[in-house]
Specification:
Elements lengths: L1 E2 L2 E3 L2 E3 L6 E5 L6 E6 L3 H18 L4 H17 L1 H12 L3 H18 L2 H4 L3 E7 L2 E9 L2 E5 L7 H12 L3 E5 L6 H13 L6 E3 L4 H9 L3 E7 L2 H13 L3 E5 L4 E5 L5 H13 L9 E7 L6 H9 L18 H16 L3 E4 L18 E4 L6 H4 L6 E7 L2 H10 L2 E2 L2 E4 L3 H10 L5 E3 L15 E2 L2 E2 L6 H7 L1 E9 L16
Parallel strand pairs: 1-5, 8-9, 8-11, 9-10, 11-12, 13-14, 13-19, 14-17, 16-17, 19-20
Antiparallel strand pairs: 2-3, 4-5, 6-7, 7-23, 12-22, 15-16, 18-21
Organism: Psychrobacter aquaticus CMS 56
Protein name: methylmalonate-semialdehyde dehydrogenase (CoA acylating)
Keywords: NAD, Oxidoreductase
């Protein structure tokens, strides 16, 4: 049985814990590895190593840091197939989706390699007579990241490359449900030249999360995951004086106007609603059909019925959910939808896949006539379930979306530039797609979820990540080249 190792001060070692968590293949329930509940002593060792490494890493030339990530992106590309296979085995998503998971993280690594252009301060000459002022962005110290099960490659790569590139050291806690691809990425980071103590990895559940939030030497915490845990992390980390950013749950809507390109829209809707078995915080889980687009119901159902569910390694359309508990929760929520009066027009419960009868499979599921007071609308289902709602006009659709507390992403499908402009201007959601269902920006921008989907002012990766992982120091300087020309000045002026 493989036991997942930790990384502390440059050494991959097995934990001394007596508490181990099973990692199972979601398609078979076979135990494929065990991950430790890292001990408090080991967490303290990791933080101490990071604190020591910070004293030299913070002064390492920025070009040296950049070259490490140039090498790192090269290694990730070389090992793309291996990384995707590891990810699929422990997480369940299809091989194609696993490659996409790794690739979107790789884009952030590439961005981190340009840190010399991102971490530039400001300079103003002669702000007063003979006085110059300039600002510099300096690293915070030891930072930490807590990542979810659904993107075990991409989201760790959102975090530690930007933190390390800006001169910080890092403590990473991967999801205890699928940490193996994360650890392989960490191994490649060490191979690329990340020094001892600069990147450390600890494992476990709530006890490890709380230890990270409480540790006085950790200056900032980045989190992606469920709303309940996100609130816990934000409150606990903030209470101990840390910076915190928490990307949390969502309920993303797609608004379809009658003039939309029908075939393109249907294809994108099916992919965004059911891809990754719906286990995305950016899944398009609600569609609002405006006016005559309400006639597209049968077409939406037909697209969903053509999707193939199988084990991820078979590389079909949908893989299994992460765990039996996740499957039970999704099926329970489907049941509440029926009980509360929604029209179940496609039921994905009870599906079995030949050769993988024990898998956590739920097939594409569609509800029509969903209302905003139903549980299936109010909760993030995190499964392949699409809720269909109706609106008489674009104004009514916008009002519906803005009444929902979440703000991760939304999309509009239309051929009208005027309608698209009105939508992007009036909608109160942080990320908007126009004829594009999952509007996650590339790393030169930043993930900009909002409202109940986010706690903290700054998002991960991109320009906002540089701000999150640095503190601004302003220097005002005057140099004298002659004798004092005036006496003591007791006023506030320079």
């Amino acid at each position: 049985m493989h036991h997942v190792q930790q990384l502390i001060n440059g050494q991959f070692t097995q934990s001394k814990t007596d508490e181990w968590i099973d990692i199972t293949d979601p398609a078979t329930q076979e135990i494929i590895a065990k991950v430790p509940q890292t001990t408090n002593d080991e967490i303290n060792q990791a933080v101490a190593a990071a604190q020591t490494a910070f004293q030299t890493w913070r002064k390492t030339p920025i070009t040296t840091r950049a070259r490490i990530f140039l090498k790192y992106q090269e290694l990730i590309r070389e090992h793309m197939d291996e990384l995707a296979e590891i990810l699929t085995a422990e997480q369940g998503k299809t091989i194609a989706d696993a490659r996409g998971d790794v690739f979107r993280g790789l884009e952030v690594v590439e961005h981190a390699a340009g840190i010399a252009n991102l971490q530039i301060g400001d300079f103003v000459e002669n702000v007063a007579s003979g006085v110059d002022t300039y600002s510099i962005w300096q690293p915070l110290g030891v930072c930490a990241g807590i990542t979810p099960f659904n993107f075990p490659a991409m989201i760790p790569l959102w975090m530690f490359p930007m933190a390390i590139a800006t001169g910080n050291t890092f403590i990473l806690k991967p999801s205890e449900q699928d940490p193996m691809v994360t650890m392989r990425l960490v191994e490649l980071a060490v191979e690329a030249g990340v020094p001892e103590g600069v990147l450390n990895v600890v494992h476990g559940g709530k006890a490890t999360v709380d230890a990270i939030c409480d540790h006085p030497d950790i200056k900032a915490v980045s989190f992606v995951g469920s709303t309940a845990v996100g609130h816990h992390v934000y409150e606990r980390a903030s209470k101990s004086g840390k910076r915190a950013q928490c990307m949390m749950g969502a309920k993303n809507h797609g608004v379809i106007l009658p003039d939309a390109n029908k075939e393109q829209t249907l294809n994108q809707l099916a992919g965004a609603a059911f891809g990754a078995a719906g286990q995305r915080c950016m899944a398009l889980s609600v569609v609002v059909l405006v006016g005559a687009a309400g006639e597209w119901i049968d077409d939406i159902k037909a697209k969903a019925e053509n999707l193939v569910v199988s084990a991820g390694k078979n590389d079909k359309d949908l893989g299994p959910l992460i765990s039996p508990a996740a499957k039970a929760r999704v099926e329970h929520l489907i049941g509440t939808g029926v009980e509360e009066g929604a029209s179940l027009i496609l039921d994905g419960r009870g599906i079995t896949v030949e050769g993988f009868e024990k898998g956590n499979f739920v097939g594409p599921t569609i509800f029509d006539n969903v209302t905003s007071d139903m549980q299936i609308y109010k909760e993030e289902i995190f499964g392949p379930v699409l809720c269909i709602m109706r609106a008489a006009s674009l104004d009514e659709a916008i009002e519906l979306l803005n009444a929902n507390p979440h703000g991760n992403g939304t999309a509009i499908f239309t051929q009208s530039g005027a309608a698209a402009h009105k939508f992007q201007q009036d909608i109160q959601v942080g990320q908007i797609g126009i004829n594009l269902p999952i509007p996650v920006p590339l790393p030169m921008f930043s993930f900009s979820g909002s409202r109940a989907s986010k706690l903290g002012a700054l998002g991960p990766y991109g320009k906002q990540a540089v701000q999150f992982y640095t503190q601004t120091k302003t220097v005002t300087a005057r140099w004298f080249d002659d004798e004092a020309s005036r006496g003591v000045n007791t006023t506030i002026s320079i």
